[in-house]
TrEMBL record:
Gene Ontology biological process: endoplasmic reticulum to Golgi vesicle-mediated transport; GPI anchor biosynthetic process
Membrane topology: Multi-pass membrane protein
Gene: Mppe1
Organismal lineage: Eukaryota, Metazoa, Chordata, Craniata, Vertebrata
Top-level taxon: Eukaryota
Cellular component terms per the entry's GO annotation: endomembrane system; endoplasmic reticulum-Golgi intermediate compartment membrane
Keyword Ubl conjugation: no
Record's keyword annotation contains GTP-binding: no
UniProt xrefs under InterPro entries: Calcineurin-like_PHP, Metallo-depent_PP-like, MPP_MPPE1, PGAP5/Cdc1/Ted1
Keywords: ER-Golgi transport, GPI-anchor biosynthesis, Hydrolase, Manganese, Membrane, Metal-binding, Transmembrane, Transmembrane helix, Transport
Domain Calcineurin-like phosphoesterase as annotated: residue spans: 69-308
Transmembrane parts of this sequence: 20-43, 360-387
PANTHER family per record: METALLO PHOSPHOESTERASE RELATED, METALLOPHOSPHOESTERASE 1
GO molecular function, one term: metal ion binding
Protein name: Metallophosphoesterase 1
Length: 398
């Protein structure tokens, strides 16, 4: 059988063999272009910025110039030299780069927030490895001048509290211009950046500094929200900020017992939902959470860390959105949040990225097709019709 097939292949004209080979190459290239470029374009093209009203009690829509378009993602976990296999790094970083750059091109956000754990091994990285990680990050997440990039620190960037050092914090701050208790105001909207790793509450030097900055910022924001004729001596010499209630941006979520109440296709798996969270490890402590709520009275909290989606209400009125991981290494269905925000209102919409399982299925189907076409071309695969005809002729002969 095999010798017959080999002679058949050799008997094919060279022109036909080259033509068939060219068709196979075109098919392979087409599948690669679709799975590595076009699929990101097709999926993200379906995402639209949510509409936001002018205020809580008005029915009028804001004009596009008054709405801040914010893109929020979390937990990119760029692999390092210790645990990151080169092929895994290459694949995951390509996926994130293509998704991010496609989203910037299609959606054109005003600002992008990354909620910590930018790196997977920042807590361990030596200077040379750190510089390499930063270089790769800047390539993957480069943005045009029209889009501002703001990065919040996470535990994998500087270590958990017991691993956190002044050196690690300073090098992160130097690269990303981040400080805990930093206020960013855009279009009259106040964003407060929190180093949640430093909210341990044990009085460590870095913790004291971070909490002091947050407390001072809280005072400034509270004074700014008071009416002009309000007589308060403590606010007399305080620099006034926009009166908009702030939005908190941090890596750790505020305290919650577990993800048991979380729902949606990108929530934690059923077997993980009821596992109790550990304070100061999975979520902030009750005390630290109450401090932040009391200091800032935020209208929205955005956090990461859990790699899964969740929406909870604190004090019955303050929503917190846990943003899932942006990396396919952590999820089959990564996503990011699109937020249309004004000083008085906001509207959020989730944008899913391509499912990795579907991309893998496309590659498997294409591979099976290539094998089938090759076998058929080499006449090593019996055509179904010919096989059926032989069966029918045998039955007639009987």
């Amino acid at each position: 059988m095999w010798s017959s097939g080999s002679s058949t292949v050799k008997s094919l004209p060279l022109k036909k063999r080259l033509c068939f080979l060219l068709k196979l190459v075109c098919l392979v290239i087409s599948v690669l272009i679709f799975c590595e470029f076009l699929i990101y374009l097709m999926v993200i093209f379906q995402c639209q910025w949510p509409e936001v009203k002018g205020g809580a009690h008005t029915g009028e829509k804001e004009t596009s110039s008054s709405v801040l378009k914010a893109m929020i993602l979390a937990d990119t976990h760029l692999l390092g030299e210790i645990k990151g296999h080169w092929l895994d790094k290459l694949r995951r970083e390509w996926q994130m780069e293509r998704s991010f750059q496609t989203a910037l091109w299609l959606l054109q956000p005003d600002i992008v927030f990354i909620l910590g754990d930018v790196f997977d091994e920042g807590k361990w990285s030596l200077p040379k490895a750190w510089e390499d990680d930063v270089r790769r990050f800047r390539k993957m997440f480069k943005s045009p001048v029209s889009t501002e990039l703001v990065v919040v620190v996470g535990n994998h960037d500087i270590g958990f509290h017991y691993e956190m050092t002044t050196y690690k914090v300073n090098r992160f701050e130097k690269v990303f211009n981040f400080t805990s208790g930093k206020l960013i105001t855009r279009k009259g909207i106040n964003f407060v950046l929190v180093n949640s790793v430093a909210m341990e509450g044990d009085g460590c030097a870095l913790c004291r500094t971070a909490e002091a900055k947050l407390a001072a910022l809280s005072h400034k924001l509270n004074c700014s929200q008071q009416k002009p004729n309000h007589s308060n001596q403590r606010c007399r010499d305080v620099e006034k900020l926009p009166a908009s209630e702030p939005i908190l941006l941090q890596h750790y979520p505020l305290y919650r017992k577990s993800d048991a109440e979380c729902s949606g296709e990108d929530a934690a798996p059923p077997e993980e939902k009821n596992i109790p969270f550990k304070e100061k490890y999975d979520v902030l402590s009750r005390e630290a959470s109450q401090k932040l709520l009391w200091w800032f009275h935020p209208r929205l909290i955005l956090s990461g860390h859990t790699h899964s989606a969740c929406e909870v209400l604190h004090a019955g009125k303050i929503p917190e959105i846990s943003v899932p991981s942006f990396s396919w290494r952590n999820r089959n269905n990564p996503s990011f949040i699109m937020g249309s925000i004004t000083p008085t209102d906001f509207s959020l919409q989730k944008c899913f990225l391509p499912y990795e399982s579907r991309v893998f299925a496309i590659y498997c189907a294409a591979g099976a097709l290539l094998v089938t076409l090759t076998l058929a071309h080499c006449q090593l695969l019996t055509p179904p019709l010919y096989f059926a005809q032989r069966l029918i002729s045998k039955r007639k002969a009987v």
